[in-house]
Write a structure and sequence with these properties.
Layout (H helix, E strand, L loop, with lengths): L4 E6 L14 H15 L4 E6 L7 H6 L4 H25 L4 E5 L8 E2 L2 H9 L3 E5 L9 H11 L4 E6 L4 E2 L11 E2 L1 E3 H7 L6 H9 L4 E5 L5 H7 L5 E4 L1
Parallel strand pairs: 1-2, 1-6, 2-5, 3-4, 3-5, 6-10, 9-11
Antiparallel strand pairs: 7-8, 10-11
Length: 235
Amino acid sequence: MKYKRILLKLSGEALMGEQGHGIDPLVVTLIADQVKAIQAQGVEVGLVIGGGNIFRGVAGATKGMDRVTADHMGMLATMINSLALQDALEKQGVHTRVMSAIEMNQVAEPFIRRRAIRHLEKDRVVIFGAGTGNPYFSTDTAASLRAMEIKAEVIMKATKVEGIYDSDPVKDKDAKMFDTITFTDVLKLGLRVMDATAISLCRENNLPILIFNLNTHGNIRRVCLGEKIGSIVTA
C-alpha cells in the first residue's frame, strides 16, 4: 500500500444511493466492504462523513432557520451516518470507534486526539462525527482538521465523478479533468473540490487531497495502492 494512514471523506449523499434521501443499507455495506479490504492490508483509516442525505445546515439557514441551530442539526445528521457506517463495519468484523466533536457519551466517545491515534495504532477504524463541533464550519473543513490532527498522509475525498473538472461534467460533455492541480489554482478557478477554508488549511500544511469516484467498487483500494485514479491537489 502506498499510504499507511489516510483520512477518507464521504459525503452524506454517498450513503443514500438511488433512493434520493436517507441511508441505503446496501450502499453502506458496500462502502464498509471497501474499507475492510484496505484496513486488512495495513492501512489505518480515519473517516469523516457529511450529513447532506439527512439535513444540511446551510440549506436550513437559507430557508429562514437560525444558522447556528441549523448547523447543530447538521452535526447530528453526521452522527446518524457515522453510527450507520460503524454498524456496517462491525458486522464485517472491523473494530470501529465513533468519536464525536460534541458530547453524547451514550452513543460515541468524545474526540480526544491522542485516543484517536491510539485507536488507529490498534487497527481500529475511527469515524469522526459532528464536524468540528462548531457552526459555520463544513465537514470538508472537519476532514482537513482531523487529517492533520491524526497525521494522515492524504485526504481521500470520495465523490460521484471521476475527479476534478474545469466545469460540471454532468452538464458539460467537454469538461476537462485535471490529473494534478495546485491548491492555489483550485482557489483561483473557484473549483468546487472542497470549501475554501478546507483548501486553505490543506495548503498551509501541505496535505494532499485525492478526489476519486466512489461508485466504482474497489476504487478505495486502488487509490491506496497508488494507482492513477482521480485527481490530486498538491502544493
